[in-house]
Amino acid sequence: MSYFFENPTADQSLFVCHKCDNPICINPNHLFLGTPKENSEDMVSKQRSAAFLTDKEVFEIVELAKTGISYRRLAKRYGVCKQHIGKLVNGKARQQILLASVGTELAHF
């Protein structure tokens, strides 16, 4: 909203992206417009995405979270934001990997 308030003629069909990567930041100088693809590329280039994690790392994150290690600590350890850790642990991201691990665990019984 703050971006469009400061730039009323801006194309509202585009995403408003963050230069500072602080989700609560509303400083128009820290925001820029981009397509969904550009927004995704920006996220990956800044390693804010869990996309660069290996399957093994995803398994480790989920298992470590079960032991009570905080999302913040896991995020720092694996170089992603704590929101991505939450998505992995809660099955909102990389579900196919987590489902495959359950199948593998069941096959060992």
Q: How does this model look, in words?
A:
This protein is 51% helix and 7% strand. By secondary structure, the chain is mainly α. It has two domains: 2-45, no CATH class; 50-107. It has a two-stranded antiparallel sheet. It is elongated and about 50 Å long. The termini are far apart. The model is unreliable at 102-109 (pLDDT under 50).
Q: What's the quick description here?
A:
With 109 residues, the chain is mainly alpha-helical. It is 51% helix and 7% strand. The protein has a two-stranded antiparallel sheet.
End-to-end distance? 54 Å
How many individual β-strands?
Answer: 2
Q: What is the total domain count?
A: 2
Helix content: 40-55%
Count of separate DSSP helical elements: 6
Rg of Cα set: 18 Å
Order of helices and strands: HEEHHHHH
On the 0 to 100 scale, the average pLDDT is: 79
Uncertain spans, ≥5 residues at pLDDT below 50? 102-109
